[in-house]
Amino acid sequence: MQPTSQIITTTELLAGLHESGNSGAWLEFDRRYRPILIAFLRRMGLNDNDAADVAQETLACFVQDYRQKKYDRAQGRLRSWLIGIARYRLADMYRAKVRRREYRGESAIVDVPDEPEVESVWEAEEKRHIFEQAVAELRATTRFNEKTIEAFERVVLRREPTETVSAELGLTPQEIYNAKNRVIEKLREIISRYEMLFVGG
What we know:
Strand content: under 5%
Distance between the termini: 16 Å
Number of helices: 8
Largest sheet: none
């Protein structure tokens, strides 16, 4: 995902996708949604290769439909349209799995997630992706020293005991507490900017 100082809103991105020669819009659309789609499809039970294939098909299908004016934002969010396409592809795979099971004489029962579950999984993966991108930006662009960031990651993300981190990094518990708060404040700022990328989507 591009730096959030160059935010392209969902509205601007969708406008760019209408232009057949606008490769930048396609690249940004791909950067923004492919990682979420792949993670979402893995949570739906696909292996890495199948998830990558279905994500590619979903993105390509959406762009084709959008340029043919089949997508109407007034009738639903962008992510709902993407989920719909992905679910259609998932259903194809589930049906194929059922046929293979029947051929082998195994149980043909395959659980297909319902719509609320699917929406919940997508939202969780979107939030996780935003958080990971924000942490990556934090490490790459802020002036926090390595000890400060390491203390934050170990105490907050990995939930290691403050006393252990304090002893191993040579920081007092108070210094770790202060470092944690400074990093969290900056991280919230970065996350809010990343969330703007998905506003309206």
